[in-house]
C-alpha cells in the first residue's frame, strides 16, 4: 500500500468511535512507520487513505490531480451490504491486469491478484479489492489484509479474522511458481525422464551437480523418452552440470537412436522406442521467479488425495508392456502354495492397469513340460485376466523353469499371439525353491530374443537343493542386473500384499526394461593392433587409448559383450582372448598393460591368425563378431584374401589406418559397404575423434543384422 502521495481513491465511512488510533501502512513488503488514524482515515504525506474499517472501496490508481490533491477524495461509495456482523458471500478470486499509475516506474507493475468483491474486515459492509501490486511484487491486497490484522483500531471480529487469514493463506501458499512470462517452470530431479513429463512443451529447471556417470541417455539431439531430461540437456550442451532452465519438446518415437559421447556423457544406442523428446535452452523468462503466487480456486483439501482417474478400457497408458507371468506349477510348490501364488499374480495383474492401451499379460505354467495357459491377445481387461488366473489348474512334475523360460521367449511373444511392435517384452519368473534345470542358459536365450527377464524368488532353497546346484549365483547371472535384468525377493507367499505394489512399480519402470538385446551387451570385439617399428612407443600408447575408449562403451560381462586383443608385427601375439576377462575393469586394465613389440608389418597373416585362434572358439556363440584392424603402414603380405575369409566366417571388419597406411589396403580389408567401414587419419592424435563413429558403426551393423 502506498502512503499518501495521492493516486488512490479513498474509502469513505465512519471509523471506529472516531478516536485517533495508530496503524501500519505497508509499502509492498516493507512496513512504513505508524500513522495516525482519525475518522477512518490514515494520514500520510500529502494525502490520506481511508482505514480498511471504513465503509467504501479501494479504487484503482488515478492521477493526483484527479484525486483532489492527494487527499483520497472522489472515491466511489460502496453499495450497501448486509447487516453488520453478517459475512457477505465470497466469490472465487480472479486475476485482473494492472493499470499503470502516474507515480509507478516503468515496468514496475506486475500481474496482480484480485481479492473477492466482498471481504468483511470489521463492522459494516465494506469491501476491499486489490487493483495493483508495487514494484517489489507484493500485492496491495495482501498489505491491506496484514494492516487490518495488525491494527488494534480495526481488529476484525473473530469470524471475519479467520476468513481474512484463510484468504491471505490461500493467496500466499497456493498455485505454482511462475516465470515472468506467466509459464510455470517445474523443478525436476537429475533422473526425471522425458516420459515423466506430460505436456507437449514444458519448461523445467535442472538441479546442479548431477552425477554424470549415472545418467541413462539414449540418442543424440532426439532422445528416447526414457532418457534423463537433465542428462540429455547436458549431453546436448544446453546446460552444464551447474544446472539451469531447459525447454523440453515431446516428439514421436523413432528407430535407431545413436550413441554419441559428448560433454562427459556417453549416450547409448536404442533400436526403437515409442516416444522421444528434444531439449533447448530455457529463456530467462522460463526460470523460476518469486513474483507472487496464483490464487487457487479449488475447494479446501479434505486431507484425502484425489485418486487418479483411469480409463478402465484403455488401461494404464504409463505402463505399456507385454508381460508373461511364468508361474511355478511343479511339485516343489505344491497345491496349497500354488493357490497362494495365483492369488499374488492376480493382484499384480489388477494393479498393473491392464487395458487396450496399457499392459497386456499372459500366463505360462512351468512344470515337467511348459504350458502356455493364455496369450497376450486373449484378454485385455483386468477382470477377465483375474478370472482366467483363478481357473488355472495345478500340473505338478519337476520344476523345469529354464525349459519353460526358453519356451516362453521363443514362442510366446509373436505378433500372432498379441505381441505389440515397439513395446517392451517381459517375462516375470516365479521361483518357489530351486529349478531342476539350467536357468542361466535360458536367460541368455531370452536375451537373444530381446526379452526382459524378471525373477521373483520366494523363500530359499533347501539344503538338499543347494547340494544339487553348481553355481549359487545363477539367479544374478540369469537376470544379469547390469544389462537390465532384475530380480525380486519375497520371504514367503503369505502376507505378500505389501510386495505387490513395489513389484508393479519395478515392472512399469521403463528404465528397467532395457534388457532387450543391444549392440552394447551382445557383441564380441577383437582389436588387431599394429606393433611395428614405424609406430613408435608414444604413438602405440595413443592406439591403446583408442582401444580403451571403444571398449569402455560396451557392457562387458560373461553373458554380455566381450573384448579380445592381438598385437602383430611379422609375428602375432594374443594379448588376451574373449574369455580371459569378463568385466570392463579387467579388460581396461589388460589393455593398459599391453607391451609394445616393434618389428615388421604382416597384416594378412595377423588377420588369419585372429580369425582362427580368437574368433574360432566363439563362432557359434550368441554375440555378433567384429574385428577392428589398426595399422600405420603397408603390409608386406596380401590382406584381401584373409579379410574375405574373416568376413565369410561371420566377422564384420573395420579398418583404421594412420599416417602411411595405403587407402587401397584399408578398403580391401573392410566389410561392405567399404566407405562406412574404412577410417583414416594422418596423425595418431586423430584416433580419438574416430571413437564415436566406430561405436556408431558397430551398432548400426548390429541392428541391420537383426532386421
From TrEMBL:
Plays a role in the control of cell shape and motility in the trabecular meshwork. Keywords: Disulfide bond, Glycoprotein, Repeat, Secreted, Signal. Gene3D superfamilies: LCCL-like domain (2.170.130.20), von Willebrand factor, type A domain (3.40.50.410). Residues 1-13, 67-76 have a biased composition (Gly residues). Residues 1-21, 34-110, 292-313 are annotated as: Disordered. Residues 77-87, 95-106 have a biased composition (Low complexity). The lineage of its organism: Eukaryota, Metazoa, Chordata, Craniata, Vertebrata. Its main location: secreted. PROSITE patterns: LCCL, VWFA. It is found in: Secreted. This is Cochlin. The keyword 4Fe-4S does not apply.
